[in-house]
Write a structure and sequence with these properties.
- The protein has 238 residues and is an alpha+beta fold.
- The protein has 3 helices and 15 strands.
- The longest helix is centred in the middle third of the chain and has 25 residues, at 91-115.
Amino acid sequence: MSRTQRLELDDATLREWDATVLHADTDGVVLDRSAFYPGGGGQPPDHGVLLWGGVQSRVVGARKGDDLVLVLEEGDPVPQAGTTVRGAVEDERRTALMRTHSALHLLGGVVFREYGALVTGGNMEPLAGRLDFNLPEIPEDFKERIAAACAAEVATDRPIEVKTLPRDEAFQIPDIIRTATNLLPPGLTEVRIVDIVGLDAQADGGTHVASTRFIGDIELVKVESKGKANRRLRIALH
């Protein structure tokens, strides 16, 4: 189990906090407390800085393993173990990724509700993303219908709630896994659920906005065919 307390999982709005360096070398820094999202589920890692004693080091990535290791910009100073640092997440990037991740969940919920299609893949960057669906056939007005439905869900301002449940209890939620393949590790005892209330409840480890209103305008940029039974939907946020 990682020695780092993951602050962003409980409060996605947190941008600054104090922490103690547990380990540091040229490969990265391990903190006792961190709000840097390390990446996963298609969401890229946060960027930001560590500040201490008038020194600044830029955080440009992270690695998950036995510990959560923050990757510093090459050549930046490395704090020694035991140092108290101030961590700060780059707000613009994180907020854009939160909006994008929530928008993709909303899109997945809409397509599942309308067509019963499961997600076969996905990816995102700040303010842009894509989901692939197992959709053998689509009607001619598919793009317009999905775009209108997404806009309606944003306007509805559905709350987006995060909770952690025991694995058995989580799997009692209907359609909790809407990917074609269940990616949850078999040894996982607790499951973090992101719930767009009334639309989409999914096992997820990422960061999200508080309600669909905060996603903003979703543009359905393109619908592409990626095989006989696979459709790729690309979105952009404005």
